[in-house]
Structure formats: C-alpha cells, structure tokens
Amino acid sequence: MDKIITKSLKDSISAKEEFVRVQMEEIIRLAGWIIETIKEGGKILIFGNGGSAADAQHMAAEFVNRFLIDRPPLAAIALTTDSSILTSVGNDFSFDDIFEKQILALGKPGDLALGISTSGNSPNVIKGIQTAKKSGLKTAILTGGSGGRLRDIAGLSLIVPTDMTPHIQEVHLWIEHILCRLVDEALYGDVSVPQHPI
Fold first, then answer.
1. Rounded mean pLDDT of 171-180?
2. Comparing C-alpha atoms, which of 61, 49, 85, 70 is closest to residue 187?
3. pTM of whole model > 0.85?
4. Of these four, 14, 64, 81, 129, which has the most CB atoms within 10 Å of its CB?
C-alpha cells in the first residue's frame, strides 16, 4: 500500500508540474477572461458530468460565496444542479441536450461558458460549448489527455497532459482553485491571509 500511495502522489504532482509547464499562458488567459467577464457584468456558466459536475458546482460555490476572503458574490452558475431541468430535458429530448438548452436559456454575449470533461469527448459538453460559441459567449474547456474533440471546438483549451483520469481530475481541482485566487487577487487585492468563515 505504501508503494501505491507514494507512486500516486508522485504522479499527481508530476501531472500538475507538467500542466503548468506547458499551459501557463492558457491559465493566465482564462483567469483574464473570467475577470473581464465579471467586470463587464457577465456570468460564468460551468458544466460537466460526474466528477466534473461536482467540480462545476464547487467552482460556482467559490465564486458566489467566497474563496479565501469575504468579498461581493461573483456571478457563476453550475448547469449541473437543477434536477428537474436535467431530467425533463433528458427525458423529453436527450441527455446530450441538458447543457445546450440551459445555455440557450441563460447565456448571453459577454458571458463565459466553461466546460469540464476529462476525455474532451462528452457529447453534452461538446453541444454546450458549440451552442455557447454560436450564441456569442466566450468558450473554454478543462480536459485531459489529447483534449478530445473539445480541443478544436473551444476558444481556449486547458489540457492536463496525462491519460490517468484521477490525476486529470486532481489537476482540474487545482486549476479551479488557482483561477478563483487569481480572480480574487485581481478584483479585491491580496488574499494571502485567508479569512476563516464563522
């Protein structure tokens, strides 16, 4: 067990280090897009499946509530949370349409659609990003491996260079946290001394 733990830790760290080495510019660009979107009164629409759905909800919560400091709520919506919308669209049309329909209903030019897919090939995330792009939203994705089909569809692709799904997801969580910090620092100053919630 100790060998498995040690190897998993080393591989997770290596995935983060390699990701930053090859994608530093894209991380900074996505942070800039989020900052610009919020400053101009837009919102962030975040979506994915399974663990990526949990990431979408986690990230939206950090923006709407708080990350490290108390500050005004920032406009972010996880498109993974309304069970009535998800099941009605899935039942009446297709599970592939669950994000597309919400983007058509809620998205507008000036917003940012952020899709999360470890493979880059999730049909509903692909449709969501395609629809967001056609609707005039900025589009970005977090993915892994080769980037899948989403690599060539989104306006900005952040791709974790490993095929190990657990390590892709671990890096995605780190990316989401660092984006939250970069946004908070840009809008509200130094957050290096966190304020602990009551």
1. 96
2. 70
3. yes
4. 129
